[in-house]
Amino acid sequence: MLNSLKEACCNRCLFKKNDMSLSDLKKIDLRTYWKHEALDFTRWLAKEENIQLLSDEIGISLTNVKAEEATGRYSVDIVAKDADSDKKVIIENQLEVTDHKHLGQLITYASGFNASIIIWIVKEAREEHQKAVEWLNNNTNTQLSFILIQMELWQIDTSAFAPKFHVLVQPNDWAKQLQNSASESKELTETKLLQLEFWTQFIRHTKSNNTSLRIGRKPRAQHWYNISFGTSEAHIALTMNTRDNLIACEIYIPNAPKLYKKFKDNQDRIEDKLDFSLEWMPIELKKASRIKTERNADIDTEEEWVHYFNWLQDTAEKMAKTFSDLL
Questions:
Q1: Burial class of residue 251 (count of CB atoms within 10 Å of its CB; 0-12, 13-18, 19+)
Q2: Which of 38, 56, 166, 295 is the most exposed place for a label (fewest CB within 10 A)?
Q3: DSSP code of 220?
Q4: What is the value of pTM for the model shown?
């Protein structure tokens, strides 16, 4: 009896010990994995799956990614575009502590490429350089945005390394949206503010509902909100139309007619999996095409927004799953 009791106590102690055990989280030096800044890190970052990690972290959809682009006698690490606004983006990588030279290069490249979004990825930021980037955001016009990111690598025990983009400085989007709106007419300002509030609440709603969607982009004062779903050739576009009182969810394909044809060839299979009809919209005189569903929505009535958020989330999740299965 005593032995059995001791054995039971030991088992409970062992279970408790195992249940409470935690692994070590270690920060890895960046040069352990990326030996060379240009040949290793820049090429790694330019890959679609890795640039998507950065996009999700900063809330900007980066497309048309090109590495080692030249301006004059200088070469910037990465040039891209913001899919939502079509603004030019430049990325300068520095796997060392920040210095004055790279800050100067960053401004030179921004001027040479006429960039609107400037991203500086570093190993570590000195306080004076972090304050300099903050100053640039606070004292430049609303068309310029500076983002300072600390690159990190983490490991649990002997697991594979996990990259982490840690945003140190980014613009105050809300303040810049208000500045943009203030220069427009009263009617347009109210519409823009309504759009910004709608998408802000939508993002908050979907994140609280554990969505499978890649909700990473920041809300903007515009009638659409884009979501990636596994390909750089297309994305999901959620739209709100305050004039016609409609909300919609669509697969938007900017310039990939072969992808649209592939989806169209599988129309029956796609629509069998969905519980709603789709409007197939090839754009004959342009390169872009759409596959869309929509519904009525009284957008001015904020009390109804939660129903619209549920519809947009549910519809987008189903379309993301169904269409990504064909990629």
A1: buried
A2: 166
A3: -
A4: 0.66
Closest CA to 74 of 37, 99, 53, 102: 102
Residues 176-324, CATH architecture: 2-Layer Sandwich (3.30)
What does residue 298 show for φ and ψ, rounded to 5 degrees?
-85, 85
Length of the chain, in residues: 327
**Which H or E run contains 168?**
strand 162-169
Place of tokens 């682009």: 69
- Confidence band of 215 (pLDDT split at 50, 70, 90): confident
Q: Token pair for residue 65?
A: 């990614």
Q: Match 């427009």 to its residue by tokens.
A: 184
Instruction: Find tokens 């993002």 and name the residue.
Output: 203
pLDDT digits (tens, 9 = 90+) for 139-167: 888 789 999 999 999 999 889 999 999 99
- Joined together, the tokens standing for residue 148 give 């300072």
Q: Would strands 88-97 and 74-82 be described as parallel, antiparallel, or unpaired?
A: antiparallel
Phi, psi (deg, nearest 5) at residue 239: -130, 150
- The domain limits of the chain are 27-171, 176-324
